[in-house]
Design brief:
The chain has 400 residues and is an alpha+beta fold. It contains 15 helices and seven strands. It comes from Sporothrix eucalyptigena.
Length: 400
């Protein structure tokens, strides 16, 4: 099926600089699937395959035979190596960062040796936005299922490998159609269906083309796209340059996006390394290891979210979000048990992760719907009881 011969190429990358078995399944990206020792995903109009040994990362790309609507296959030179380097942020020296964080933070120094090679991916901003909207009150397994359904029903088919079809991620236009929300509800997206459809419609209607990409960190460009200055429409003074704070504030204006989702997109979709997403796991870390006081409520206010993020930014510096991802992974029981004492060893087996994430949206349509159903059932039961009593009363009167 490939337009270019699928051959393995290698890059010299140690497991301390990158561990794909951890990085690709720790809650950053939700579309990578593992087949034996090989990870596969569609990226920028191709099916990308990755595998790894102790010293090298191996990659190959499979392109579609023919042009696919919404996809522009590359011609001439294969740019997959540049894509891999950019997507995995290989320009960042992770070893140096680990040394800095270990020097400045005793807690990081204690846990990091067992969790080396965790990098923040440089993902497509639109994909990150949609997937993290899906993360509301959800777990990695279900988010991955939703991402797969989006691709299957709305993304272009790039081809099949070993009988397995691979679809690229759908464009905003594909998810902006009037019928999308109802269809996504049928597919099990619940209240998230409205957020996805409304956000897609906003990007296609109210925002100019490239608006989301223009919120990106200029130091971390997206492969295959131009990275220009922040548009005048996003800055109050018309000349506001891109910044983490500006990107965060703009994302909060979108449907279904609260502080945590905004920071996830900033960190993993827009290249802002200082963004620190705060969910239940990060809050547990802050309370247990960094002396934050426990809250009576499980709801995170924006003030608490900002307070935790600012603390970690002051402690870890401009790549605070990268350091947070290491401790986030270490806080997951399945990873802790799987990797303990086995860093740099044999291949890590895939583990199903159940991560329940608290979302900023507290009252969802599903909850309201459930309450309404309960009230309706209760009302029906009460009416039935009244009818029975009335019937019994009439019978007694007749007998008298």
């Amino acid at each position: 099926m490939s337009r270019l011969a699928s051959q393995w190429h290698k890059l010299p990358v140690s497991l301390k600089e990158l561990c794909i078995d951890t990085t690709l399944r720790c809650g950053q990206s939700f579309r990578w699937r593992k087949f034996d020792d090989e990870w596969r995903c569609t990226l920028h109009g191709r099916i990308l395959s990755l595998k790894q040994d102790a010293n090298c990362l191996y990659y190959k790309a499979t392109f579609p035979d023919k042009a696919v609507k919404g996809v522009t296959p590359k011609s001439g030179d294969d740019d997959t190596e540049a894509l891999v380097r950019s997507y995995l942020n290989l320009q960042v020296n992770l070893g140096t960062l680990y040394e800095q964080w270990s020097r400045d933070d005793a807690n990081f120094r204690k846990k990091a040796p067992q969790f080396s090679g965790i990098r923040i991916l440089n993902q497509d901003a639109w994909e990150a936005l949609v997937c993290f909207i899906c993360s509301s009150n959800n777990n990695i397994s279900r988010i991955s299922q939703m991402a797969h359904k989006l691709c299957l029903h709305y993304g272009p088919l790039l081809g099949t490998i070993d009988g397995e079809p691979f679809h690229d991620f759908p464009t905003p236009a594909a998810l902006a159609a009037p019928t999308v929300e109802a269809h996504l509800r049928q597919l099990g997206f619940g209240y998230r269906a409205k957020y996805i459809a409304q956000t897609a419609q906003t990007l296609c209607g109210d925002k100019h083309e490239g608006w989301l990409e223009q919120l990106r960190n200029p130091a971390c460009p997206s492969p295959g796209s131009k990275n220009t200055a922040l548009s005048k429409s996003t800055g109050e003074d018309g000349d506001c340059p891109p910044s983490y704070k500006t990107a965060h504030e703009q994302l909060l204006l979108l449907s279904g996006v609260g502080p945590k989702v905004a920071d996830c997109v900033c960190l993993m979709g827009l290249g802002w390394g200082e963004a620190v997403p705060v969910d239940t796991h990060v809050w547990q870390i802050a309370v247990r290891d960094y002396k934050f006081k426990k809250m009576a409520s499980k709801t995170f206010s924006k003030a608490i979210h900002d307070s935790v993020g600012d603390h970690f930014r002051s402690l870890w510096g401009p790549y605070a979000g990268w350091a947070q991802s290491v401790l986030f992974t270490a806080n997951l029981k399945s990873f802790s048990e799987q990797l303990k004492g086995d860093v740099g060893g044999d291949e890590v087996k895939t583990v199903k992760l159940e991560i329940k994430e608290e979302e900023e949206v507290q009252t969802t349509e599903e909850v309201v719907s459930t309450k309404r159903k309960r009230k309706a059932v209760f009302k029906a039961e009460e009416e039935a009881k009244v009818a029975v009593i009335e019937t019994q009363t009439r019978s007694k009167r007749r007998r008298r």
